[in-house]
Amino acid sequence: MSDVSDVVLYAPPKIQRIFSVFSLQIILTPVMTKTASSNSLAAFPKNFWTAISMEFFERGSYYGVMSVLSVYLVLSKNEGGLGFSKESVGVIKSTITPLLYFLPILSGAIGDRFGYRKVLFFAFFTMSLGYWFAGFSTTYVTVFSSLILVALGAGFFKPMISGTIARVTNESNSTQGFGIFYWSINLGAFLFPLILVPYLKSISYNYIFFMAAIGTGWLLILNYFVFKEPTGKRVAKPLGQVFAEMVTVLRDFRFILMIVIYSGFWIMYFQVYDSVLWYLNEKVDMTGFNNLINGILSVVIDHPSWKFDAEHVTVMNAGAIIVLQLLVSSLVRKTKALPTMIFGISLGSIGMGMLAISPSGWIFLASMFIFTLGEMIAHPKFLAYVGLIAPQDKKALYQGWSFMYGVIGSGVGGVLGAALYVHFVEKTNQPSLLWLTFSMIGVFTIIGLLLFNRFLAPKN
Predict the structure, then answer these.
(1) Is residue 351 part of a domain?
(2) N or C: fewer beta carbons within 10 Å in the chain?
(3) pTM for this structure?
């Protein structure tokens, strides 16, 4: 998932450098190697495992909801949904997701000034309240308002956990600690949509929101009784300084242009949580794959009736990262950042374009896998590239503001995806043109990066 950004944005400078040079390989290896003994795990303090638990439940709750949210909002009321138009859902997604990417830049400074526990209380209360209200909401205004509460809470939550891990680890175990943190994100995003979401939505979609409300609400108890305010020196930046630093970054034309160009890939990426799910639900025939899985399950279960549904797209993404990111990172560890980014975006564009071939379930699965593979190649190298082009004394600052790609990509992607889906799929019945359009956005992103590499990229 794109939340790998959390590992870098709020990690200490040394971890940022490790990530930039070695991508995910160095971070993840200690988690997977046999040398990571029980004694080394025991060296982490209780506050570390408390933070990891918070991350697992919060991300599991979030991705559990997001794996089906766009489908739920547009399904007719007879099908258990709310019957909103796709354009109106696009507006919701183009509001709440950019908030998630922008707020941590400010909330990190707030946490350093007022304390992590206080900010976590606010975050868990706000998120849980938002999910709870969303479960009961049936009108556009109330759903929108509830989801803004969720985004507000999640935006304040993100830097508190990664900041805690940075402060409770040291030179000897910080790399392993952030590796465990990264895996907790993807494990939550894998297990909740795989296990809880299908069961809950068989009762009612509302129960998925209630699950998320409980999954984040109980963390208030954990925060009160178990979590301790991290010790160590905190640099409490005034918000005025945060905004002043923002202006400094915005003056770097080369950096901002690169972010804008790279955002094209994320316009494609955010379709995975919107238009791709609508297409799966309305057009794709997964019969062949469902029959294969049910044939395997029939060995141990009588008359299985499993079927691939919207939430399994998120499961595929998280599962592929859990299984393959180590291998992918090792293969591209020594390659140049910008050409590797271009290669990864090329795979993503091919994956998106493959959806134009036919509504076959097998093609859908292959396209999603290829797109995820492209993400695994491109995004860590993007983070590494930011580390290379940022001024030596402002690397952490640039790493933070580099995540404006998410603000732009999700802000444009939500509205654009909904509008194009309605036009090409519902009005003109030409879904192939929808996916070719998004694939071409990837192609233009590649062209932009090639031109950037030719004329503006720093020469090594």
Answers:
(1) yes
(2) C
(3) 0.91
